[in-house]
Amino acid sequence: MARHVFLTGPPGIGKTTLIQKVTQALRSSDVPIDGFYTEEVKEGGRRRGFDVVTLSGKRGPLSRVSSDSSASRREYRVGQYVVDLVSFEQLVLPVLRNVNHGSDSEKKICVIDEIGKMELFSQAFIRAVRETLTDPGTVVLGTIPVPKGKPLDLVEEIRSRKDVKVFNWLQVLRHWWTQKKHWTVDFHTGSS
């Protein structure tokens, strides 16, 4: 039986938006929830990078477009983005630790958006995610990228876990859209 739920799909399809809406609904129902999501940072209509935002409202840079083409030995890069590993770990690791060390008598939900290339530069993050997934009192609501290029070990590990259900958000949207069109036709034609 799946305990954890992950969304996958191409960038820009609305995974983070859905996570934010679900988070708001759970919070308004007083469900214990903590975690983080990533948010696009735009400047003048162009993507400049990504921020990490905790559910408590703390924010910090995850990555920014590199201003020069020379890569430092200490830089972690994904395409044109330089990952700010220190900022990421300072924000995310305490959140995951708090979720993992809470009371086992109360189920809690942990939002992890996203487990992707940028985040996986952090070995401490990888360990914390594994610990969170094995905590019997925690349910994870997360996002993972669609398989593309070289497989990401932790992502593949998550996909293969028996206690994880992965939903392809693009397929869910397509199914919803075809059903919506069908409902519209039924409504207008009176057919059932």
From TrEMBL:
Keywords: ATP-binding, Hydrolase, Nucleotide-binding
Domain of life: Eukaryota
Domain AAA+ ATPase: 1-173
InterPro entries attached to this UniProt entry: AAA+_ATPase (IPR003593), Nuc-triphosphatase_THEP1 (IPR004948), P-loop_NTPase (IPR027417)
Gene Ontology MF terms: ATP binding; ribonucleoside triphosphate phosphatase activity
Annotated Pfam families: NTPase_1
Signal peptide location: none
Gene3D superfamilies, per database record: P-loop containing nucleotide triphosphate hydrolases
The protein's name: Nucleoside-triphosphatase, cancer-related
Originating organism: Anas platyrhynchos platyrhynchos (Northern mallard)
